[in-house]
Structures are given as C-alpha cells and as structure tokens.
Amino acid sequence: xxxxxxxxxxxxxxxxxxxxxxxxxxxxxxxxxxxxxxxxxxxxxxxxxxxxxxxxxxxxxxxxxxxxxxxxxxxxxxxxxxxxxxxxxxxxxxxxxxxxxxxxxxxxxxxxxxxxxxxxxxxxxxxxxxxxxxxxxxxxxxxxxxxxxxxxxxxxxxxxxxxxxxxxxxxxxxxxxxxxxxxxxxxxxxxxxxxxxxxxxxxxxxxxxxxxxxxxxxxxxxxxxxxxxxxxxxxxxxxxxxxxxxxxxxxxxxxxxxxxxxxxxxxxxxxxxxxxxxxxxxxxxxxxxxxxxxxxxxxxxxxxxxxxxxxxxxxxxxxxxxxxxxxxxxxxxxxxxxxxxxxxxxxxxxxxxxxxxxxxxxxxxxxxxxxxxxxxxxxxxxxxxxxxxxxxxxxxxxxxxxxxxxxxxxxxxxxxxxxxxxxxxxxxxxxxxxxxxxxxxxxxxxxxxxxxxxxxxxxxxxxxxxxxxxxxxxxxxxxxxxxxxxxxxxxx
Length: 492
Description:
alpha/beta
C-alpha cells in the first residue's frame, strides 16, 4: 500500500553527564541487537545526547539517515532538558523508554537510575506540551524495549499518516445523515487537510476522463478480481472510468499532503447521473489503502484511514446496523457460544467492503436504492455493489468524531465476526463484542457517536488507543467489562 507511511525508526540514547556515557551507549547497542534478532527494523543514532549541542548534532544525523519516527532511550538517568527538547524539535512521532537495571552484582558503577530519570522527563515533557508515545510500562531490558519498539511502529504509522493526510470530499453531507455532519476545525487541529467539492465537480471529472489506457487497465483488473462474481460485465467499463477519474482527483488535489482519503456523497442523485452506484469502486480503493467513506462522512474517512495505518489491511466502513434475531442465536449456539444476545449485532453496508475481506464476493445491485429509484423495473442505475458475507475473524470497531462543540472523541472495541450466515444482503456479518449492549447505550448513544463505524480487520485496539493519545484526543472510550460501570450508568 503506497498510501500509508513507511516508517524508518531511529533510536537515540541520552545520558546525564554525571553518569557514565558508556552505560547509555552499550545499552542502546544491546537494544538494537535485540531488535535485529526479532526482525524489528531500527537505525542507531550514534550521537549520545547529553546537552543542547548534542540535540542539534543528533537532529542532523536523524535527518541524514531519513528517520521519521524516533525512540528516545534513557540508558541512564538522562538529561531532562535536552532529551525533551529533542522530542520537541523532532518533526515526527516519538517514543520514550528507559533501561531497566541489569544485575544485582552491578549496582554501583553500573546503576543507571533511568527509572527515576523518566519521572523527571515526564514533567519536562509537560512543560513543552509534548505527547510522545510512552508504553504502558516503559522500563525494560533490551528484549522488552525491542517489543515496545515493535508495538510503537504501527502507532507511529497512524500518527504520521494523520498528520500528512488530506481528505477529499465530493458533495454536501445529506440531510438524512445529519449524524455524519461535524465541525471540521478539529481536523485542522490534528494536522489533517480537507478540500470539499460539489458532486458536479466529480461528474465533470468523469465526463472528461479520456485516459483510455488507464480505463482499460482498470477494467482488466476488475474482471480478474471478480472472476465468477462479475455478474454485470457490461457495467465494467463505466466503473473503470469512474475509478480512473477518482485517481485523477487524487493527483490533482494532493498538493502539499502525502496521503489521501475520500468522503463522497453516494446517493440519491449519484445513480441517476453516473449510471451506477460507487460501492464496488470504493471497495477497490480501500484495498489499496485509500478509504472512500460513504455519505460524505468526513470523520468516517479519517477513522478508516487510521485503521489501515494501524493494520496495513483494507479498512471497512459499516453501519452498526441491526440486532441479531433471538432464534438465529439459539439455533447456532455452537457458533455464538457464551455470547449474550446483547453482545451480538450485524455490521452492514451497501457493498463497499474489499473483496479480500468477503466470502465469495459478487457484484449486485443496491436493494434499498432500487426500491426508491427503479421499483418494478430491472436493476440498471443501482448496479455496482460488492456483496458477500464478511470473513470470520478478529476485528476492531473504531471511530473518531467531533462533537457539535468541536471537541474530539473516539472509541475502540475489539471483537470478532462470527462464522454465521447473516441471511441478508449487502456487505454484512454477525459481529460479537463483549458487553456490546452497555457499550451501545453508554458510549455510542450517550456520547452521540454516529451509526457509521470504521472496521479494522484484526485486533488493533492497543495501537489505535495509543495513537489517539499521541494525537491529543482526550475523550477515549472502550467497552467496559462486567463490574466496571460507565459514568452515568444506573447502578440499580
């Protein structure tokens, strides 16, 4: 995927001048060796930071080695001023961690006191208003630090991606989906750029699309991808032209940004003028790491993009759609296990989920839109969805959203898609999340999150939670286990 950052992480050791500098150097080398042994990519910064001049030298070396994510490693107590200045002046995401003491036989000249030094650093980070990634227990031996660095890599990818993202939107957010409306000021606070166009601009792009070689290439890819699921071969050229136009929109609008996501209005006028629904093409772009959120859902596009950066896999955007009938649960207890009825729900959308995330994907028509626009007639302009059962396996549901008062909040909950036929239409699956009923009431409803959720295909909660913290999102929610009440939850 070329629409997400490639992270080149460097490790720089710091040393307080009243401690042996060799202690930091040797400990850094052992961390780097542990990273190599675990196949965690790492670049050592040879400069040891003891003072402000060292900060400047380290930054020069960091730039020369093309480092875009940094681990500041306290090999000993560390100089709280210079080490936090380094975090402040480094342009990318940073992590800070400290060395554990190594042996009870070497606690005189070999004691580093980094456990204490990290406390001093934390206060100075606050003075400089910095938010580096700090692992849950940020003190460890070389192998433990290497594990922390491995977990930092996807966090850094999310943060670096968001800070260099542009969201391209076509069409106003529809009145029937006011839940997709939210102030855009917090996007700029995160570093996200946004450019909004009308549907006419997109229509004009498609009408002017004349790169026939690109259209033919895309059409060939579609035929190969769909295989037996290509039920509307006559529609393929039209879909290919639409995809080529969106590629041109990316090139034309990227500007100073590095990465792109879309938030496009997809109905009710779209079908009449474009002659198809956009769902399948949305799924193809998502497979390349370029999310396309339906219904001009700008924060949905951002949430999807964070998911793809966290996992490196295509993201989804689904409605938290309908409850699972009790009889379906009881008849399938071998699959539903000990999940309560209120733990289960169906995630659905018209047909925008990437083919690699579906079982036996097939191109179909959008049933709901067909009822409205082609009732009683054979499907024509409502064709172009990609439908199928969502593959069973671990998932995370995630959403960043602004309140009407421009305050950011986010939630993440981990669960799974069950190997259970939903017996319905669209891109759809039966989702299971522990304590979903309480989460639905006290987070989704109480905190006024919209019906769209981004889906990461894998358990990415730890990464997404940490990335949100680094990005300054204070209101973070998750599904509380039994016995841990939510604020405002009735205790009786």
